[in-house]
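Tutorial, part two.
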Amino acid sequence: MFKSFFPNPKWFFISVILWASITSLIWYSFNTQIGSLFGLSLDDSAPVIGLGHFVTDAFILFYGYYIVAIALFAGFWFKVAPHKWQVWSILGSALILFSTYFSVQVSVAINNWRRPFFDLVQEALNSSRTEDIDAVQFYDLIILFAEIAFLAIFVFVLTRFLVSHYIFRWRTAMNEYYTGQWDNVRHIEGASQRVQEDTMRFATIMETLGVALIDAVMTLFAFLPVLWSLSQYVSELPVVGIIPYPLFVAAIVWSIIGTGLLALVGIKLPGLEFKNQRVEAAYRKELVYGEDDYQRAQPPTLTDLFSNVRKNYFRLYFHYMYFNVARSLYLQADNIFVFIILIPTIAVGAITFGILQQILTAFNQVSNSFQYLVNSWTTIVELLSVYKRLTSFEAAIDHEPLPEIDQEFLANEP
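Running the prediction step on this input gives:
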């Protein structure tokens, strides 16, 4: 799955984590000093509304810093471990990361726009105002929003197009690797299904799940500082009282609770999904043999095999039932959680309508990012199932012991 597309996957991904940590530490510790070397000011005390948000000195410095960091990293791996797919696996990954980060910054730009617009709405609806609001101010802000929205559409479409090509290249790499081993794997049960169906499903899931993960991480990087700064407008939380940076703390604690809850109640699902594919494969295999051999696929055998299918599906239905109950309860509570923690602040009129809109957006962005596992659990279960099957397939290719779950399944076969 990975060595077909990435150079020396184990050390490659370790180096990714290390290099990302080092470059992030340097950026957040010394970006002001680096900017001053090039005559750039990183003062962002007054957010720029509109497309100017993307061409501030801070952004220009980041663009250059990112290009240099990626060039150094890619150059190292191009030299140390040349790989057929290195342009797509290294530079393609870097480009997807950047485009996803840029998309998230579009959301930040829209959030910056919310305060002046909704404050203007509040002022216009105030019955005690003494002067009329010039409608041109509304039109100007709406034009700014339209500019950001059109940029968002362009970046979204471009990112999805790039990701689709990237994922299909990955599938192509896996296909070439497995078919190159075909003489050694044709005897493995379900080999054709692993090469065709599972590589296709792996690529399809990674296209949606991988992008969602990157987007969640990038959203945290972009909106956590926003939520941190917006916490100055909230004096206290219900029950808890006054704490430092209450919005920031509340978002993290609430998201950790949800993630832990869903991980706990859904812990059995990956194994059941994997076993489900095995019993389906056994049933399908007998039917295929029965097409050419009249002694195979007899009713008693098919009844017994389908009984295993039925048993596993019913177990899945039961476990998904309480998982969906827990997930739905949490997501419904999440819809009103931010309003609950803002009640003391709203009641005393400590914030404007524009600030409220900014808080709601930033809190939901951070909360949803932390809830990646909650929102994607069923898809993650499917990916884990595919991963387990391909891992078993690769173990058979390399003549290695099968994973424990495969050994357990084979031991229980009649």
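The radius of gyration is 27 Å. In part three we will examine how such features are distributed along the chain.
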